[in-house]
Amino acid sequence: MKRSTVWKNVALLALAAVVFAIALLMGTRSGGEFGGTDAAASEQIEESNKDYEPWFSPIWAQPGGEVESGLFALQAAIGAGILGFVLGTFRERRKRSTETAPSADDSPQDAARTPESTTRSS
Question: Distance (Å, rounded) from C-alpha 30 to C-alpha 44?
């Protein structure tokens, strides 16, 4: 690997560690409670309108917070798998296109030749 590439990778890892640390510190300052936007919206609505009644109920009630965490982890894993597949596909396409590109040693005449022009006609 090139030296500049190694330094870029180290810098990106350091940046990721800093972002993680900041998020961790922000979470511990707020008491460690990470609430979802649905819960925050429900609280706001109930505070602003005391007579509010929800007009629907959930189709399926989850048995506990563990199930919610598990479903979220499953969703993240599926998304990571799809992202990895797409990035791997793009990388292999680029790799193959650079391998099959004509080199500078090839003459323009060889590159312009087609298989039909090299066969004998009878």
Answer: 19
